[in-house]
């Protein structure tokens, strides 16, 4: 099973590779990282929002990056998986 730190590194690289030129700079929101059902759930947002946490700077509906801790597969979350990150216990 993959360590969370290693999985987080994969998520950061995935986000960088997925970034389009027409998007604002994006970064992983390390404060919101969690684990559920063998997946590391890695939210991200604009660098500007993460620096200020100012709501108008927030990108809406950013699907988190999911890293399978058993297989190291990295991908964006899907609609069917939304309860994994929307209904997390606090």
Description:
With 90 residues, the protein is α+β, with helices and mostly antiparallel strands. The chain has one domain (4-86). It is 29% helix and 22% strand. It has helices spanning 4-18, 47-52, 82-86, and strands at 26-28, 34-36, 39-42, 44-46, 65-68, 74-76. The strands form 2 sheets. A 4-stranded antiparallel beta sheet has the order 2-3-5-6, with helices on one face. Strands 1-4 form a two-stranded antiparallel ribbon. The chain is globular. The mean pLDDT is 89.
What's a concise summary of this model?
The chain has 90 residues and is α+β, with helices and mostly antiparallel strands.
Determine the fraction of residues in helical runs and give it as a percent range: 25-40%
- What is the global morphology? globular
Quaternary status = single chain
Termini gap: 25 Å
Approximately how much beta-strand content do the residues carry? 15-25%
Please give the domain count. Answer: 1
Q: Show unreliable segments.
A: none
**Tally of DSSP helical segments:** 3
Report the strand count. Answer: 6
For the sheet with most strands, the description reads: 4 strands, antiparallel
Sequence of secondary-structure elements: HEEEEHEEH
Mean pLDDT across every amino acid position:
89
| Strand order in the largest sheet | 2-3-5-6
Radius of gyration: 13 Å
> What would you call the structural class?
alpha+beta
Protein name: Immunity protein 35 domain-containing protein
């Amino acid at each position: 099973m993959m360590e969370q730190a290693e999985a987080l590194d994969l998520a950061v690289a995935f986000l960088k590779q997925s970034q389009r030129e027409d998007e604002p700079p994006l970064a992983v929101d390390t404060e919101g990282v969690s684990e559920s059902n063998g997946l590391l759930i890695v939210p991200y947002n604009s660098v500007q929002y993460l620096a200020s946490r100012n709501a108008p700077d927030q990108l809406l509906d950013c699907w988190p990056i999911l890293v399978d801790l058993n297989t190291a597969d990295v991908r964006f979350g899907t609609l069917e998986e939304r309860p994994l990150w929307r209904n997390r216990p606090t």
